[in-house]
Amino acid sequence: MSVFRLNGPQRSAVHTRTNKLANNRGHAIVNAAGWDQATPDQIRTGLQPAAGLQGKGAVLLGIDHVGKSFGDGQIIALDDAKFEISDNEFFTLLGPSGCGKTTLLRIIAGFEHPTEGRVLLDGRDIGHEPPFKRPVNTMFQSYALFPHLNVRQNIAYGLEMLRWKPADIKRRVDEVLDLVQMPAFADRRTTQMSGGQQQRIALARALAPRPRVLLLDEPLSALDLKLRKAMQSELKRLQKETSLTFVMVTHDQEEALALSDRIAVMNKGKVLQVGTPEEIYARPKTCFVADFIGEANLIPAGLVGLADGKTISIRTEQISVRSRPADERRSVEAIVTALTFLGADTLIEARCAGDVPIKARVRGAVSGLSVGDRADFAWDHSSEWLLSE
Ligand SMILES: Nc1ncnc2c1ncn2[C@@H]1O[C@H](COP(=O)(O)OP(=O)(O)OP(=O)(O)O)[C@@H](O)[C@H]1O
Ligand SMILES: [Mg+2]
Question: Which residues is 61 bridged to in the sheet?
Answer without folding.
Answer: 85, 121
